[in-house]
Design goal:
Blueprint: E1 2-5, H1 14-19, E2 23-28, E3 33-38, E4 41-46, E5 49-57, H2 61-68, E6 71-76, H3 82-90, H4 98-102, E7 106-110, E8 116-120, E9 125-136, E10 157-170
Antiparallel strand pairs: 1-10, 2-3, 2-6, 4-5, 5-10, 6-9, 7-8, 9-10
Length: 172
Amino acid sequence: MFERIDIDSLELNPFSTIGTDDFLVTAGDGESWNTMTAGWGFFGVMWSKPSFAIVVRDSRHTYGFLERSAGFTASFFPPEYRKALQFCGAHSGRDTDKAAATGLTPIVVEGPEGLDLVTFEQANMVFCCSKASRTVLDPSQFIDAGIEKHYPKKDYHTLYIGYIDQVLVREE
């Protein structure tokens, strides 16, 4: 189903992969998990390790799972799953079974040190991450005043940086 690839062989445009295509952030384990659609994030090297960063508001159901979990996945999909990702971004896992509603099939993949992570059978690329840090964004630190327009409710994101433990791609 998935094969692990060396991160050094990864070739992609981060601006379209994250900014245009969206992805699912999933936290929890095989017993209890939640997923949400994200369109903001970035990856690179932090603290000398390959890293993936996501932001999540504390009002999102996934936030509690991220707080309790040691890791998360960032799962990317082929274009035909765009409607499924839109659904996952518009509905809460508090009252909706997103997998059942979209036809996405959750699967458990093993992370480092036996950490169970959840992704989806239909994904074509998955970043499996262990949490390295969390920082609540503080508006007093915003240099660009225009950032505030993204927070009319003053519901600032928490930034999670995860070390990329493995990258999985769909086997052809």
